[in-house]
Amino acid sequence: MFPNDSLRPDRPDPDALLAQVQAQERRAARGKLRIYFGASAGVGKTYAMLAAARKLQADGQPVLVGVVETHGRSETAAMLAGLDVLPPRAVEHRGKRLAEFDLDGALERRPPLILVDELAHSNAPGSRHPKRWQDVEELLDAGIDVLTTVNVQHLESLNDVVGGITGIRVGETVPDTVFDQADEVVLVDVPADELLARLKSGKVYQEQQAERASKNFFRKGNLIALRELALRRTADRIEDDVRAYRVEQSIADIWKTGAALLACVGPRAGGEHTVRSTARLASQLGTGWHAIYIETPALQRLPATQREQILKTLKLAEDLGATTAVLPGHDIALTAADYARSHNLSKIVLGRAHPTWPWRQPHIKRLARYAPDIDLVEIGMPSREAPAAARPGDADGRKDGGAYGGLNGATNGATNGATNGAASGGPDDEQSAAVLRRRVIGYATAGVASVATALLATPLLAWLDLANIAMLFLLVVVLVAVRFGRGPSVVATCVSVACFDFFFVPPRFTFAVSDFQYLITFVVMLAVGLITGHLTSDLRFQARVASHREKRSRALYEFARELSGALQTEQIFDTTQRRIQQAFRARATLLLPDDDGRLQLPPLSAADIASRAHLSVLDAGIAQWAFDRAESAGLGTGTLPASRIFYLPLVAPMRTRGVLAIEPQHRRWILIPEQRQQLDTFAALAAIALERVHYIEVAQNALVNMESERLRNSLLAALSHDLRTPLTSLVGLSETLAGSRPPLAPAQLETAALLHDEALRMSALVSNLLDMARIQSGEVKFNLQWQALEEVVGSALRASGSQLQGHAVRARLPAGLPLLSYDAVLIERVLCNLLENAAKYTPPGSRIEIAAELRGAWIAVIVYDDGPGLPHGREEAVFEKFTRGERESAKLGVGLGLAICRAIVEAHGGRIHAAASPLGGAAFVITLPLGTPPAMPELEIEGSL
What we know:
The structure is a single chain. By secondary structure, the protein is of the alpha/beta class. Helices cover 49% and strands 14% of the residues. The protein has 28 helices and 25 strands. The strands form six sheets. A six-stranded parallel beta sheet has the order 3-2-6-7-1-8, sandwiched between helices. Strands 11-10-9-12-13 form a five-stranded parallel beta sheet, sandwiched between helices. The model is unreliable at 1-9, 385-427 and 938-945 (pLDDT under 50).
């Protein structure tokens, strides 16, 4: 049996067992999810999924194919033969008829197993869920097992990483929680060369798509990097599965599936060397590592310099990539072994042991006895740091077997910070003086209490036996240990034994002993007193640790509860400031960004100015740096550590929401890992609350804008319909008036012509209003055909001929442009609007050019001129409805032309934006997707000869 075996946490935690049973019940009622995971398209995920489905069907299990995307691959399509396929749901969107997964049909049939391909797919507008993975979640909640597929670039956490590697950032992503919570992940892996061979042979994409893909995404370097990401992400997932299984099965033995390291740090010289050596070893092994600092009651009174050094060592470990922790415990070696087992760390790294008492074993030997399955690595001391032989009985060696190069208990300062929830305030000398005063009072009280007990018990000697009087002295020892700790209890024990001998053992009032048996009584009394004081002091230490842990948990709970009811930013600000000041004894404030991303201080009232006087030393530059880079700065960090204020960015899931500025009463506590972890948790809760309030405001504004837009469109449509008929009549009447017989006088004829022109202009305006309302309401049906770009450009130039008179117009279209799928009438309308705008806002004789060029998977059409250009900063505003290029202009128009252009282009899946023209004026760039044109029929040459 190990020493202190009664203190080992071998007994299962009832709360953990209950949570485990409840989780198992939830999993039993929920369907199982298997994800076929790959590095890129074409590795064979869908094929592997269909092969597994066919095998299950052959074994007698019903299988339903919900949706499978074959992408024209004949081998994959052949695997669907013999499988029950769910008919797709037809969805009308922008004139197209889309085939989507029928979620309601799947739920109605309730198959035991369903196949749902492409987990990251975005559903068509109007579907119940915007994403396919949400459809899968509903199937799983209904108890249906699901097989699905996903690529590594679609994982939310890796989306930006993959985008940086390939230069292409996909818009369809899956939350990592869906991937992590899957019951099974099957990696479908293909080497890069083999995948490129498959691409070249047409087994991934059709020929034209394959050619474009090989020049962009499917480069060998990209595929190798994506393969590494997929393998690493799968390995991380498997590591989580191993850890969960060990917890579920209560397995305490180390499974050396990885080479994770545990560095033990302490107060002796050489701790930093141990940390750096562990970091280098972890880098060589390509694994993660932890650094711990074990807190024991025997090591709570170290000098301030040693306390500071311990915290700096832990901070160094954290900067080097370690997971740090301060652990309370009585047996250092046992606590370290338990931590290594709970985190499945297969190697413990310690510094070289120092000389100690002969009967005390070094911690590395005790670790070898407690944990024979864990590898132990001993780090030598560098010559420049190697101290002289340690004197037995040093502060850190007296109770725990000497120095061990970094495995030791927490210091008083660290203990106060790590367990009390806040560091004590004041400079080090004041703190040391206060500690010294408490020690003197404790020792003096122990001696006085023992003497007072002897004086009070002397009159009772006639009625009490000596054994009962000895019990009174033991009671004093226990009370002193509870109140003042181990040292004073030792003094109380020694003084009590001396008083018992002097006042009560015959011959009285002398230290002489007449009976040898009293010597045994003294020894037993002394031993019982020392053991009782030791155990009581340990219990006092554990109670203090438990009390402060409960305080930290309660502070987090109350903070989260208050934030959950906050509906305004001001409420979040006040709650965060108040709770941080209470929990950390530090002054704090929030800095929130404006619309331009610049941090702003909140408005202060007269009462606030006095309470926030510390903000006068706040450095806005440091705060802005922390906000822009989402990294902490200032006090206790590697960026401007001389600052008095610690700047912590409030990083929410979508973006950074602000910066929390904290000025602690004592700078040491910012280095304590537990303090930083709790502070990070407070910051995360505040960031999530700010993001929630932000999106509440966004949703409210969006709702108001939608209602305003709906009302505007209704009014426009009503006015357009009501005005179209009289305007048509007015145009006809003006034409009739101009051609009437006998002819009109010249002045009257001029008036009739002017009336005709204004009626035409008004009719065009009403048509624009009506078209805008129809496009926004989705009533326009697109006639998409594969056509040449040259045709629509030529027709637009002919239609705008009258407006372009007096300008030098030139079309530059390269030969060999591919066919595009577009509605010729609407795209002609876009080009006409752009050409007419160029003619309207440029002086006569100006040059207007229209050009086209290929840009990867897009084609760009540019209309530019050499006129005055757009006003600076209004490149995006000109596309808004009823917005004109010149705020005050005599030129005709109401500012709908460009808004119509954007609506039509975006309805075709493209984009339009304004830029500076190479000729010096304005340029409007339209980008449309290329797509894959249908195969052209081969010409029968022989039949024509």
